[in-house]
């Protein structure tokens, strides 16, 4: 009888152990191995979770999105959520001219998303104002809300320890340590005063102006305009600017000459003369309007370079970076753009990124401080050169949301 009781007891304990193990496995996050050419965006599509949730779960830099071949990633469940927790070392900083969320995140060793969360900003909000006080935390961490897992979570914790990189990672692949937040923040009152040269002219901003266009008209640089003026995030119509040491004088369009009709003599026997035909006047060249043909031409050309590898500063089919791809494609439709995202902003008008049509340009970052650009293909999709180690490919605003858009045509 005792033998039977022991057998029943052992069987019950074993069944309970199997039940607990199966329950733990059901709640555990998914672990995946990174293969060559894999990206965070690929995993977010495959497992139907956001890029942010994957990067937060694996301590991935949210500016570069770089992952390493052979690395083990934790893919959080759809119900998992993280909330940023500010440490006791939270620091406040006053926004200065030229600052952006991306630049502040880089300087203080944090992320744009954490800055937004600490300052109650929206998920797609990027605009900050001079004199605004922001909360900065160089050691922001995330606290998982999802149920704790067993063995898989231990491996994830090891991945998150910046001070203990995995043994297989080479020195060149090690993540750079987070920068320590500066002990002192320069007050806004000590901002450098605008420099006005003895040789200067004054200019009043008109509709359609940009710093790039004004600099081109006067033969100066955008940097010199910023140095001579206390500028806000955007130019305002009617705003007065100082242009130091101009090397060119903008050419004013000459007024059209009036053509006086010639008097005609009519003889009595002749029929009444027909009114003289006015000479056909060719209209001035107008900027190309955004048409389906223009936009589709840009998209068709961009599609030819899908698969071309990313090369820093590249602007040819041998290799492209993001702005180099845009420059090369638009040159083939007769539009010359510079090779720099901020300068490319000045070659069109700002529109809401949700209104973008094929051929428009998506930008990431603040206006005047963008760090990435892509060509819209329609329905929220785009073609871009993402980052080192990847190739020109399609992307979606569903997983990587832009900050604003520019209409070139």
From TrEMBL:
Pfam families registered for this protein in UniProt: LysM, NLPC_P60
**Coiled-coil stretches:** none
Please give the SMART domains that the UniProt record associates with this protein. LysM
Query: Signal peptide: which range, if any?
Result: 1-28
Q: Where is the NlpC/P60 domain?
A: 292-409
Q: Which GO terms describe its molecular function?
A: cysteine-type peptidase activity
Q: Which InterPro entries match?
A: LysM, LysM_dom_sf, NLP_P60_dom, Papain-like_cys_pep_sf, Peptidase_C40
Q: Where is the LysM domain?
A: 30-75, 91-136, 201-249
What's in the keyword line of the UniProt record?
Hydrolase, Protease, Repeat, Signal, Thiol protease
Q: Which GO terms describe its biological process?
A: proteolysis
**Which region ranges are annotated with the description Disordered?**
247-288
Return the similarity comment.
Belongs to the peptidase C40 family.
Which PANTHER family does the UniProt record give?
A: MUREIN DD-ENDOPEPTIDASE MEPH-RELATED
Q: What name does the UniProt record give this protein? A: Cell wall-associated hydrolase
